[in-house]
Amino acid sequence: MKNYLIEELYEEDITKITDALTELGFKGPLDGIFYIPVPDNILQPEQVEHHGECGPYFMALEILPGCLKMELLVRARNKMRCSCVAYANKDQRNHMMDYLDEFINDLGVVI
Description:
Blueprint: E1 3-6, H1 11-23, E2 33-37, H2 45-54, E3 57-64, E4 67-71, E5 73-76, E6 86-87, H3 90-106
Antiparallel strand pairs: 1-4, 2-3, 3-4, 3-5, 5-6
């Protein structure tokens, strides 16, 4: 699995990030798992085509002690297995990594 990992975070920063993600409604079904939406304008052609049946699309973010781990796999909320579930392309990867960096920075967390 390809991941974007941010390590060496303080516990108070992890709490701040977790609270902000929960407030945005990104909380997943398991503790420590959040679903970060992938914007429609950066979906791959097949994901656009499958959006009605498989979407919306997201990347999973796992919060672990002292670190954040975002999978670089674009998942579909309504289907686990489909050809539209794929690793992020360059634009998706860059956008989502930048989004997470900016989100953390906006909370005042230094990385």
